[in-house]
Amino acid sequence: MYEDQTFEALLERMLDRVPEGMDKREGSIVYDALAPAAAEMAQMYVELDINQNLMFADTASGDYLDRTIAWSGIIRKQAIAAQLRGVFYSANDALMDIAIGSRYSLDDINYRAIEKLSLGNYRMECESVGLEGGQRFGSMLPIDYVNGLVRAELSELLVPGADRETDSKLRTRYFTTSRKPGTSGNKYHYLEWALQITGVGGAKVYPLWNGPKTVKVVIIDTDSLPASSVLVQQVQDYIDPSPGLGEGQAPIGAVVTVAAATGKFINITATVTLASGYALQDIVNSFDSALETWRKSRVFTTTYVSHAVIGALLLGTDGVLDYTGLLLNGSTVNVALTDEEVPRIGTVNLGV
Question: Which intervals hold domain Baseplate J-like C-terminal (predicted)?
């Protein structure tokens, strides 16, 4: 809005107000007196422009975005800790119980037992918040001595961790809710309820999926992968714990079924021509990263995985000059997805 209020424009206007006949050349007393003031006013206009943008939801950021949309009741999701299944064995691979609250480590991340699921199986919560705590599996070491323990393993992700919600995701959620308001148990109300549960990264609602008064809500986690059974149950308990009785968020008479999306693995093979100075493994790592970014952006928004798009991602990878023989699940055609399927990246085999 104030792009034309530059140092040069301000100084020129100020000099134009100086009476004719006075020395206004650069280096003169008048010039040197006005130039600092013009510089300060130019900076003021820059800050005015920034502050004005902080007043509106489409341009605000950080705490200002939180305050701008506070009237709507939408609050930024904070970072949460991952929860995983821990399995504990004594001698002869016999399952054994451990104390609630006992602590274990895997690499440099610590976990604490918070709930017994069954004999030798416990819900383990990461002691640090964020995605990273749910991305490691394998053998754990006890931080404190546990009598009789021979082996401890993290075997399954129950509830993924999540980083603090970004400005972009919060803004998208705000505009979605504002433009498609949930009210009186309409379709968007179920979507809003599902997204209120920490750990849910997206949802899709199917009205009348199994006859009158039935609703199906399909969810994914914060990593855009099929939700775990634990997360599904949390959403089910929040929306409709007792089908049709109205004891959750859903109105009386609505029978709600919450389910996890189904993952469809996409296996990719191709032969690539490398640029000088690039190693094949570097290409694979970069391509994997690009695939993950694309996958997360297309969950619940596409009905197929495009052969052409995957080819473009491969060709856009640094170090790839060309490719041949690109196959998705062994074929050169697009891979279809059903309404409840989300793409997952399977094996990626690149050759030279």
Answer: 266-350
Share of the chain above pLDDT 90, in %: 67
- Please give the Cα distance from 158 to 124 (Å, whole number): 9
- Which is it for the CA torsion 295, 296, 298, 303, positive or negative? positive
Query: How many whole angstroms separate alpha carbon 305 and alpha carbon 194?
Result: 26
Compute the distance between CA of residue 128 and CA of residue 111 in angstroms, rounded to an integer.
8
* Cα–Cα distances in angstroms (integers) from residue 279 to residues 290, 294, 317, 321, in the given order: 17, 23, 12, 13
CA 250-251-257 angle, 5° bins: 40
Closest CA to 144 of 107, 108, 98: 98
* Strand 151-159, strand 200-207: pairing: unpaired
Which residues have a Cβ under 8 Å from the Cβ of 56 and sit 6 or more positions away?
A: 68
Query: How much is the pLDDT for 349?
Result: 94
Q: Do the beta carbons of residue 126 and residue 85 sit within 8 Å?
A: no
The closest of 189, 203, 161, 177 to 77, measured between CA atoms, is: 161
Nearest of 225, 231, 348, 227 to residue 296 by alpha carbon = 225
Phi and psi of 204, rounded to 5°?
A: -135, 135
Write the single-letter amino acid at 8.
E
Q: Which two tokens stand for residue 13?
A: 């206007």
Question: pLDDT of 142-194, one tens digit each?
Answer: 998 999 999 999 998 888 888 888 999 899 889 988 888 888 889 999 998 99
